[in-house]
Amino acid sequence: MFKELYYWMYSYVKTIKSNDTPATSSYFLISLLQGFNILTFAVIIIYLLKINTSSVKNTTTYLGISLGIVLYIINYFLLYAQRKSIIEKYEAIPPERKTKGKIYFWLYVLL
Predict the structure, then answer these.
(1) How many C-beta neighbours within 10 Å does residue 105 have?
(2) DSSP string, 46-111
(3) In whole numbers, what is the pLDDT of the chain averaged over residues?
(4) How many Å is the Cα radius of gyration of the chain?
(5) Which ranges of the chain have pLDDT less than 70?
(6) Each residue of 20-47: pLDDT tens digit?
(7) Extents of the domains making up the chain
(8) Cα(50)–Cα(28) distance, rounded to whole angstroms?
(9) In this structure, how many other beta carbons lie within 10 angstroms of the beta carbon of residue 28?
């Protein structure tokens, strides 16, 4: 799923004329979106369990930085290192599937 999201992010970032590294930008943007998703779930869980986070401010900072580093490492090996094969694979899909993929991509980005 994230390989296809990476491809669609790459294809949209590639259209920006001032961006000369769309593969790297897509890698960082996908990692950022994944981080926001994980943090959204964490905020919901903290709210539902009524956990007081004001006393653990330093811990949450370190956890956030650690989450970012882990996401960047995982996405590097799963997406960025395989970017050529991902791009070749998704450029060859049928037009109907491309339309469906674009819809899923924009839903993921917006939600």
Answers:
(1) 18
(2) HHHHT---GGGHHHHHHHHHHHHHHHHHHHIIIIITTHHHHHHHHHTS-HHHHHHHHHHHHHHHH-
(3) 85
(4) 17
(5) none
(6) 888 888 888 889 988 988 988 988 998 8
(7) 2-110
(8) 32
(9) 15
